[in-house]
Amino acid sequence: MITTMTYYCEKCGHKLEENERQCAFCGTVQKRFSDQDYETKKCKKCGKDIYVNANFCPYCGTDQAILNLNKDLKHDEIDQKTTPNSNLTSEQKLAQGLMNTNFDDQDSLNDFMKQMQDAGIKVRVIKPEEKNETGKPGLITSTKLFFRDMFKVNKRLGINDFWWGFLGFFLIYMVVVMLISELLPIFKIPVTMKLLIKISTGGAIVFRLGMLTAIIRRLHDIQMPAWFAVLWFIPIAQLFIWFICMMGPRLDNNPYTFNVEDWKKRQNKF
């Protein structure tokens, strides 16, 4: 059995075959096939040597402009030696900025971003809490968030919080339905067709309302039109909505956050 490795275009990040020398998407000729000696840098994820101007790692596909913000980066050491600051490479300036930045302070973080921009270094800072509001999504925490925000749409909902919350919401809905069906005979309440219709209608309204607002918040998270949520009421189109809800967040210039007040402030500016 012959296995082939997957590579990535160093410019656009699309997947390439092992022997594919030129990207079919952007037309870039891959430097890993060249016999010339190019200046290299370490990939921010896998640590392999890659072309210094590569946007993506050809081995793991990591975007080199993305900086995952975690506390371990604060303690990364840089060998500055006696090199003047003006002669530092882009990688050294980035590492130096990481060491001197207090990421818990927004002003310090903003200064770091400005310094990197002035140095011609494009970085994207992603805070862990930006992806999911609960920080650590789970059945209990995400379900609580699901119920708490049932009547809110002017915010966003992370992918993990959405699916855990949906699972918890659905389980609670089923438990309530079963409890009602068991309690009616105990309290000797006549089970008529009219009563069943009222109960099922009320439950359906609550369930659909919760799902509708959650889907709208999820659409905000991936920056897609909120009106797509109405497709969830169409049986065939529901598959399309479920597929969309599995997409990752799009945080660049996203007007929605986990705080409704942030959205209100933005609206007041206009």
From TrEMBL:
Domain DZANK-type as annotated: residue spans: 9-61
Entry's transmembrane regions: 162-183, 195-216, 222-245
InterPro entries recorded: DUF805, DZR
One Gene Ontology CC term in the entry: membrane
Protein's UniProt keywords contain RNA-binding: no
Top-rank lineage group of the source organism: Bacteria
Keywords (A to Z) from UniProt: Membrane, Transmembrane, Transmembrane helix
UniProt feature coiled coil, ranges: none
Protein known as: DZANK-type domain-containing protein
